[in-house]
Design a protein that fits this description.
single chain; alpha+beta; Pnp Oxidase, Chain A; 43% strand; globular
Length: 141
Amino acid sequence: MQSNLQKIDTFLQKHHVLTLATTKDGVLSACNLFYAFDSEKTSFVVASSDDTTHIEHIKANSKVAGTVVLETKIVGKIEGVQFRGDFLLLEDDGLKKLYLKKFPYALAMNPKLWQIKVDYFKLTDNTLGFGKKIIWTNASL
């Protein structure tokens, strides 16, 4: 199971934008966010202000889903991650430092940072064979 998370981490470290899906009262929303990822804490760190639709949704329902994908038309190179987790206000200084190290210009904007604590990943990686799927779930839940 840990080697699955390592493969997912390797993919996520090559990218920096995720698509996030939220819902509130039956209304769906999707947005794109810059992220830093910490595999030990299985968490994304993102910045977002309170006046966005997705944060309004999260205040009512912290369960989220999302994707990170390599955009390509070459079938043999298709890779992407789907995830589910909880969207929380960031309280971990180590994760804050990780985000600001990856996006140092964000420091000047003093962003509000959030943590997405992931409990499920599915990596599709056609470089390992057509339609190859790698699943990771948090065993402690």
